[in-house]
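Chapter review: from sequence to fold.
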Amino acid sequence: MKRYNISWMLVLLVTVLSSCSDYLDINNNPNQATSVQPLLVLPAAITGTASVSSQFNSYGAHFGGYMANAGGFSGFGNLFNYQLIPDNYNALWVNAYDNLNDYKYVIDQTEGDNTQAYANAAANIMVAYNFQKLVDAFGDVPYTEALQNNANLTPKYDDAAIIYQDLITKLDAAMALIDAAEFPTALNSSSDPMFGGDMEEWKKFANTIKLRILIRISGVPALTAFATTQFAALDKTLGFITDDAMVNPGYVKDKPNPLWNTWGYQSTGTLANSSRLPTEFAFGFYGGQKLSDEGRGSVTYVNFDGGTPVNQLGNEVEAPTIITNYSSWYSGEFNSASSISNALGVLKGPSQGQVLMLLAEAQFLQAEARLKGFITGDYIASFDAGIAASYTYLYKDVTNVVAAGKNVAADVAAYKTGNAARYLVNIKLATTPAQRLEAIITQKWIAVNMINSEEGYNEFRRTGYPVTVPNGDGYHNIASLLSTSTRADKLPSRILYPTSEQSYNAGNYRVINPFTDLIFWDPN
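The token string follows.
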């Protein structure tokens, strides 16, 4: 593993508690002091996770069927044919482990200190969140020997399934620590830019991560007994997140939300990226090719009613270009580089929060768990709540309030009426367990579109939904036209271990086939 140095923690962090925006600046500076208060490091780490989350979203958008090439650009190379190389996602690996080192510092500085129990628990929950993301992308990764800095520069790769099981233990311990804490120092909006110090929300977030882990392994035969035991032990009284889990340390135009900065506009007002368009496959769930969804489509895509430019990945023949000055996922008004309106949908504005987990995803996880009998309750109610939560998030503005003039209940009802014969929208019409699961996963895939796209890619690999027709047109074929994948779905099964591992951890580095080497929960 690349050598990571905890000593990035710099004097700027001292001002964190007086100015939220200051802790958006995180640098690596070996000349600064290595002893920093954990409550100053924790918010920087959480904000760092928000940034890494945006990178995971971009990776998932490319391989999960959400994003295609725009016309006028060449050189996409292996993004077209999926002939991946180790350098493709090196930054994702490096930044994720750098971020995990931040949490390790908080944990080390607070371990055994009852007054710092809340910070320790929050850091451990975030470690579990991040390691699940790494496993889902890379499979076996450094875990038990990771995050030791100079003490171990070449950590072994642990079995991904074992890591998953240990993450459950870590989450349980964090929740128990919160409950058992005596006279703990409270977190607040400065030290906790996600839940503002609400430890009940932290516990629900941990419980929802547990649910996601258990759902993902529920189809792995070797882990059936473990999953059954853990589902039985899941804290149903505590429940799961009841709102979108979002990070917002005080994003502003000059220090914008990372999603906005990646796929919307830079702080100068320059369009961040003009080489990408929505796929026909994704757009078809809004534009009528598969489903009709005026409500979400109109806030998700530019010029939805007048012709959103869309493409199939790999198509360079008369591929459309972007609408000048507009990201294809921005539904607001661009007047000039200094006058870009806030909007609804995916790209709301530079000050929007960064989503780590949508309430919609949590509801669809519960829907699947209830459908399969893992937890009690009405899967139909959870499914409908997931759709409503998706509408609610997309209808919220940068202040996280549903915009005036938007009526979630009315538009969800119109969505159901407009797709009256489709079980993908009206799940009561599904006649088999497979159709019901297809509806749940398809709606989850729609909900995370360009927000947490990696979760759509993960669930597609796990379940095969939404349905794809490898030889079909772009609205029905999720894969690139130029795919060389040997999988039936013509997608890659994973990404490769990065070049940093080749250089710094060569003894443990593994050569991977991106089509046949599967993440342990992938049955395909």
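Two observations follow directly from the output. The CA atoms of residues 269 and 337 lie 4 Å apart. Residues 1-33 have pLDDT under 50 and may be disordered.
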